Amino acid sequence: MAHSNTNYNLDQKYEFSAGLKKSIFIVLGIGAVILIAGIIAAMFGGHDQGHGDEAGHAFHWYHRLYANIWINNVYFTGIAVIGVFFFAIQYAAQAGWSTPLLRVFLAFGNWLPIAAVLMLVSFFLFNHDLFHWTHSYLFDKTGPEYDPIIDGKGSYFYWPMEKGTFPLFFIVRMVAFFGFWVFFFNKLKTLSFEQDIQGGNEYFYRMRKWSALFLIFFAVSSSIAAWDWVLSIDTHWFSTMFGWYVFASWFVAGLSAITLVTLYLKGQGYLEMVNENHIHDLGKFVFAFSIFWTYIWFSQFLLIYYAHIPEETFYFVERLQSDVYSPYIFVNLGLNFVLPFLVLMTRDAKRLGVFLKLVCSLIILGHWFDFFLMVQPGTLGQNGGFGLMEIGMLLVYASAFAFVLMSNLAKGNLIAKNHPMLEESYHHHI
Amino acid sequence: MERDKNFILGVYEDEDVLMNAVSKIRKAGVKIHEVYSPFPVHGLDEVLGYNRSKLPIAAFIFGLLGTILALTMQFYMMKFDWPMIIGGKDFAAFPSFIPVTFEMTVLLSAFGMVGVFLVSSNLKPWGQPKIFDLRITDDKHVIAIDLAVNANFGEEMLSDVLKSADASEINKKSFE
Questions:
Q1: B interface toward A at CB cutoff 8 Å?
Q2: Does the model's pTM come out above 0.80?
Q3: Does A209 have pLDDT greater than 90?
Q4: Domain co-membership, B59 together with B116
């Protein structure tokens, strides 16, 4: 009723402008410089070198580099796969409002093959420095370092190989998850772009089928991926909520990134059919899932806090009673709960780009801190922290991610022009 | 003439006609008291030029009240009134207060919203809602215009405005 004009340019293509490319490369350069400065500072200023931590390992500056690479590997993998996940949700739920944004969601998946390579290579290079369970002496029953608890969990990593040798089951899972994620992503991408040429509603039904299959696979694989890649760092510890916790963190970060890219594209004059109602819906997603993340985070914390069982509480003791990490717990909750809760509560804040841009950028940083808090205490003990190396590495990864995302967005048509619900989305009104 | 006493009513059967009529009447400079319809008409509040409801503000204030009440209650009980050792923690163990605080916030904001809505819509138990036409709960839309508010028009002219705005019936209604 409000908008009767539906004469939109459906063949619009995003042009990856030289200006944006330049900005991305500048950020990449600044990130690299900060990273190198951080490495040099850590090499020569190296605190605690040679001192052993509880596990008896000496700490070296490069451990911190590896932990940083791992944080960003997991984090940006998550943001990428959330793009595909959110795309699939729209089809499975037969949602109409999001139709002009589908290509934006889908473009996030282009990072997945790169993430797969990064993840596998870093696992093979740094496994002993990141994952305590990769040490073979833990499984030697006669040795002094024999760990019956890790031995009990050993098959989960090493099956069918002997414990302490090659973690075949772990690697197979990693390869399989990335393999299937990339497979489903390519399938959906091919179908979506074929629909542009061929038209016809049967593409919609085929994509709905593939989306549903992907969602079933993702439900299981995202949870197991969280145990494998993050939870297994603290091998002794366990939490049945961990899969959801990592998923929630990924989802909020992914939604924030989607919102930012959408607002950027709109600011550049693309996606003119996306109005404040669509932006409002994205804002509601960010708002709602920030609270969902808080709910999961707090539920995990409260149960452990209340039950007060030492084998569970040490995870939080390690973080809350540490001078290095305890401030970031509050940074984490402040950026990921208090800020979106208070700022995005009103309707206007969700409809005006300026609030969303601010909050979404800070949420992306905030959820990086969430992964920082999951990875660093378990890998670095008290030798971690948030310094030049962390800032540099985050900037390098973020700009590389943005480059892959935007260059792939520029390759195809920006609008799924033959999607049967395109007309419906023009009239989205809330 | 007193306000809220004497009304002239335009009865409509179709919501599209109603929407056009509302725009037309407002364009003529007539102030509409209220429009009654048996079902929600999408976009009617925009045509009427209504501001957004202030109900969310009430929800926020009552929610905040719930938060404060729950925290005060628990701190008072656990720290001062009847301290108990649970799991070796402090008497005032803040994290364990959060679930109750959350529930109280939700409860009070919901109750507060319902209460404020009932009072402000004159549906409170002691209120006497004005029934303009019984058919508004069945199949007719009614535009109510307060004669006192539009005194500069006069009854005849208002009647003409409604007629030109395709009202199927034009009635008068007075309240004591």
A1: 42-43, 52, 56, 60, 87-89, 95-96, 98-99
A2: yes
A3: yes
A4: yes
